[in-house]
Design a protein that fits this description.
Blueprint: H1 11-24, H2 30-37, H3 47-59, H4 66-76, H5 89-97, H6 102-112, H7 123-128, H8 130-140, H9 146-154, H10 167-171, H11 177-183, H12 189-205, H13 207-218, H14 223-232, H15 234-238, H16 242-247, E1 256-260, E2 267-269, E3 273-282, E4 288-299, E5 305-317, E6 322-330, E7 342-350, E8 353-354, E9 358-363
Parallel strand pairs: 2-9
Antiparallel strand pairs: 1-3, 3-6, 4-5, 4-7, 7-8, 7-9
Helix pairs in contact: 1-4, 3-5, 5-6, 8-9, 9-12, 12-13, 12-14, 13-14
């Protein structure tokens, strides 16, 4: 079994970290620092709690003046360049202690994000002053370093995982759009991926905004922008959003018939896989581009069923052609879903249109 990610904060890392800080700031008390790190709550702390704990302890061992403390951090960061996610406490230090000193904090975040992303740390600054911070994000979008350019997009994602929410941007994402416009043709795939993820976030609350942006971009899209468009629409495509599918070339109202093949069993046990099949027959006189997904209706704790869409394939169906699909869906324990026994269902979804499916029972006994 893989070691928990929180164990990256191990003695080897702390040896390198404290050596770096001692080199930059000889008054740094390595031994006492480690005693405070390994307190009686250390073992029970999750990853983010450990990171914040390091930040808070570190503050006690650096100069009292915030800007002087930043100078120590700036000197230590290059000495720990072999680490990335480990040293996220550098931007976290700015997030916790630097909100009242923007003139010093923003350049520090610009530097620290080149060693460990400041995508979490910028968010309190956005909440404090949206116009000012988004002007900074727009400036960072032109930075020579790809990590800083990515920060301009990643830091203002409305639904960035693990991060504090940006409710203003969930309601009105318009301040984000100029930044994304600026970054859509970025030479770095790392940056373009962030642009797509940001738009996918926006689509969850403001789908019409995303459709409008991407329709404009698609007019003269390069292959790289076409990739952004496809990735930006992944949530809307799963939901069968007609305009999103149309934008990708999968028109609604596919001229097909769909036949669900009989299941080999009417029940499946937890830990096993259900084998299912469908036939898709063309009823058109011309080739049709199809986006083919399947939907599993999972039983919830209240006994009702909720759909979850899974990707299958993109195919072009020729006139008169019949496509045979067979697939296995495994029912195994995962951290993102709790399974409940009862009657589930499975159905096919083509270009956003769902067709009649089949029911089966999930049994929980081993």
């Amino acid at each position: 079994m893989a070691e928990p990610l929180k164990e990256m904060y191990n003695p080897a890392f702390f040896a390198d970290m404290t050596a770096a800080f001692s080199q930059v700031y000889p008054a740094f008390d390595r031994q006492t620092f480690l005693k405070h790190i390994y307190d009686d709550q250390w073992e029970g702390r999750a990853l983010k709690d450990r990171m914040r704990h390091i930040t808070l302890v570190l503050r006690r061992f650096l100069p009292e003046d915030y800007r002087a403390a930043l100078d120590v951090l700036k000197g230590a960061a290059p000495l720990l360049k072999q680490y990335t996610f480990h040293v996220i406490f550098f931007p976290d230090f700015v997030e916790v202690f630097g909100l009242e000193d923007w003139e010093a904090s923003l350049p520090a975040l610009e530097m620290f994000t080149q060693y460990s992303s400041a995508e979490f740390a910028v968010r309190p600054f956005i909440i404090r002053d949206v116009p000012r911070m988004m002007r900074q994000m727009a400036a960072w979008a032109s930075h020579e370093n790809q990590h800083v350019r990515r920060l301009a997009s990643e830091g203002c994602r409305p639904r960035l995982p693990w991060a504090m929410a940006l409710p203003d941007f969930k309601r009105d994402p318009s301040p984000i759009l100029p930044v994304l416009d600026k970054l859509k043709d970025d030479p770095s795939e790392y940056v373009r991926r962030s642009v797509a993820n940001n738009l996918n976030d926006i689509a969850k609350d403001n789908p019409d905004v995303v459709i409008e942006v991407l329709r404009r971009w698609s007019a003269d899209a390069t292959p790289e922008v076409e990739w952004i468009i496809q990735r930006s629409l992944r949530t809307l495509v799963k939901e069968g959003h007609a305009e999103a599918l149309s934008l990708l070339g999968f028109g609604d109202g596919a001229q097909i018939t769909v036949k669900a093949l009989p299941l080999t069993t009417d029940s499946v046990r937890m830990g096993e896989a259900l084998t299912f099949g469908f036939e898709i027959a063309s009823q058109a006189d011309e080739p049709q581009d199809l986006m083919i997904d399947y939907v599993v209706y999972f039983v919830k704790a209240n006994g009702k069923r909720a759909p979850k869409v899974f990707k299958l394939s993109k195919r072009q169906l020729q006139p008169g052609e019949t496509l045979h699909i067979q697939k296995k869906h495994a029912f195994k324990e995962i951290t993102t879903r709790t399974y409940y026994p009862g009657e589930h269902a499975i159905a096919l979804k083509v270009n956003g249109q769902e067709f009649e499916g089949l029911s089966f029972n999930l049994r929980m006994e081993v």
